[in-house]
Amino acid sequence: MQNCNIRLGFWIAAPGKKRGYEVDTRENAPVFRREFEVSNSFQNGRILICGLGFYELYLNGHKVGDRVLDPVPSNYLTRINYAVYDVTAYLKPGRNTVGVILGNGWYNPNTKDEWCFWAAPWRDCPKMTLKLELDGREVLYSDESWRVGESPITFNALRNGEFYDARLEMPGWCTNGFDDTKWPPAMRIAPPGGDLEQELQPPCKVLETFIAPPTEKFNVYDAGRNLAGWARIFVEGEAGAEIILRYAERLTPAGELSVEYQDMYIHSGEFQTDRYILKGSGTEIWEPRFTYHGFRYIEAKIRGRAKIHKIEAREVGTAFKTAGEIVTSDSTLNRLQSMTLNSYRSNYVGIPTDCPHREKSGWTCDVMLAAETGLFNFEAASGYRGWLRILGDLQRRSGQLPALAPTGGFGFNWGSGPAWDSVLFSLPYDLYLHTGDDGAIREHYDGMKRYLDFCESMATDHILFFGLGDWCPPDWEKICPAQITSTGYYYRDAKYLAKFAQLLGNKADEIRYTVLADSIAQAFHRRFHLGGGRYGTGNGIGEFTATGCALYHGLVPEKEKFGALEFLIEYAEKTEYACDFGILGAKYIPRVLAENGRADLALRFFTRRQFPGWAHWIDLGMTTLGEMWNGTSSRNHIMYGDISAWMFRYLGGFRHSWEQPGKRYLEIQPMPVISACRSEYCRYLSDWRINGDEFEIDITVPQGGAGLLVMPDGSRHILSSGSARFRCIVDLTFSPVLRSHSALLT
Question: Which residues span the domain enclosing 700?
Fold first, then answer.
């Protein structure tokens, strides 16, 4: 926890703004300004600011920094994020002017949605607090001496869009000498309720900008791929002409914009729509500030006399640095890796989300399933720590967790469940492995204990019956029963907590949760084992996922493991590697196969071109991962995104050690079931290829690093800083996938 008792200025707002639970309000975004004097002798200046829901900061006519959609949302009743800006270069001796624009964001959801954010207990009008320091001395803070005006932003809502009337612009409003005498003074207002904490994760930024050329008809522009962000328009025309921008991820067969599957959860206002009214002065350039959309296509309609010169797509997301890259000899896998990264960036805009268009919600299971992909590809640990605090702040005293974070109250009694809630355990575990930092484990340890107490109160003979189960299977009538997947995660969480207790030196808890885990395992086997290694409820439904669940969580007794694996292989071959599972099975099955020496079979699911299969999405023309195997519903979800982590773990071979966590030690155990793979993670490099029957690998270990290389023939090599090459003979006979690649090479 950082700076929990810090104070900036007073919290201020525009007078006369609606304060309660009003929806569909059309109020101009407020602007605040203040002139002040700076002496000649200062060396360093900084501003500390929080503006809710979103803000933009200006000094002497210039926007400060390149943050967008700031601050990151939180449970505002508990904590609020503020940012620190070095403003030395923006200040000048003598008279200066600071300005702030506020948007509604997550703090003031002013349109109705499925999840009742519009009735969130924290909701209020936009407000801000600010402090300016020169050489550590406070010289300006927010109070009633600030003046408040109305910006040209006439409407803004996170899940709807932004309207802007350029005729209302006020040139020079944040520069010296602007006449604000008709502006009322700011109103001092109650704080949001939570403690101020400095935002430590990277901010949201515009990640990439590229031209979206027009399609052949219907005034539709194509960004070329699915993304999160908005359009920037270059237009010219008469004052009062209006450009209406609508966004979607697909087109109808006729080429028109289609919002099918997207707009069903927003119950008021226009969905994913921006509006711009021209002021009539040459080429005008505009983009929204306080909203973002999920889209590939932009429909641009003109009312009045105007011409669109150009439309650019602006990709927006949390500006994480790259941590890893992977490229293989298989073009399908490379395409799926690209689609996964597109989905991940689209679904990390301040917080991790499920989709960037219809929901923008931090569904906990989506976070859990994609966390390792995020940590292998990006330096995302600080973001995840921040999001975990949101989840922890929302936990009820009973231990119950919501299905999404943040939430205004939705998701405690539907949508949550052990497979979703397990992120409270798995994410601190993943963070510890990837960074060596046990801070998240320590911070959420008591919350984990409360959650397992809650599960114990809900269990019958150690079996849990609540939760969504293996969400989004290809056939909903054959979904694996939730009692299997929920109990599997109940066991896994008890094992995690026993491990955490050991790490923290809490022997009593270690014993307690080890005993609990053993009891759950015995109950699971008694209730769901069908004989021959198969698991299920005895009705033949969901046994593929159920058996994968049992193996993945370590619930199969040693004597039954061979039969369980044999059942998975036979089922996969019988169905021609159809992805006969939902989001949970999509992690279980490929990992279980790889862990048991059959990574070649796991690849069959990934590269399957028919429905249901990952590669089927490629043939549908998708550039991101889908929500449904058949390509309906959302086409930009991250919940099937473990495929990238699988590639790093089993093709690249990167494994973390609980005993030596973090970036200074890796076990590298590549599985050569394709012909070549080059992967890099935190400056560890694994670059291998198959030449005939010889496996050759180049390994680079960064300065200060160490590791262990396990070759395909079982030989083991201690690694230290530097580069080295290793070779061994491999047996290609077991792998049809590898044999086909090898034949091409020879």
Answer: 665-729
